[in-house]
Design goal:
- With about 110 residues, the protein is mainly α.
- The chain has a domain of about 55 residues.
- The protein has 5 helices and no strands.
- The mean pLDDT is about 85.
- Pfam families: DUF418.
- It comes from Nonomuraea composti.
- InterPro entries: Bact_Transport_Assoc, DUF418.
Length: about 110
């Protein structure tokens, strides 16, 4: 269903919605695994839970990840685990924060 929506005018909106999750895919994957492992230890067997409960859990995890990823990516270029993975694979420390270029504009007068 989601793939079909990507062929519609909603594509741009979906990209904006999912971009924070995409940039922090490894971090989100591992945190989702930890969260779902914790949820699986709640009373009852997860395979016996009704589908609406499972859907609510998945939507809750996804919404939480989006709510945490979006503000994280304002000052930072990558998620913490994506940054660590690049450091290990590149063999050098990659920049974590966005690079801000300051341009000084002169009005032509001398003081």
């Amino acid at each position: 269903m989601l793939l079909l929506l990507l062929r519609t005018p909603l594509r741009a909106a979906l990209h904006v919605l999912f971009a924070p999750l995409e940039k922090m895919a490894l971090t989100n994957h591992l945190t989702a695994s930890l969260l779902l492992s914790a949820v699986a230890h709640l009373p009852g067997r997860p395979e016996d839970w009704p589908q609406p409960v499972l859907l609510a859990i998945v939507i809750g995890v996804l919404a939480t990840q989006w709510l945490l990823s979006t503000p994280w990516l304002r000052p930072y270029r990558l998620g913490p685990l994506e940054w660590l993975r690049r450091w290990v694979t590149w063999g050098r420390r990659p920049p974590l924060r966005h690079v801000v270029h300051v341009v000084h504009v002169s009005d032509g007068s001398q003081s």
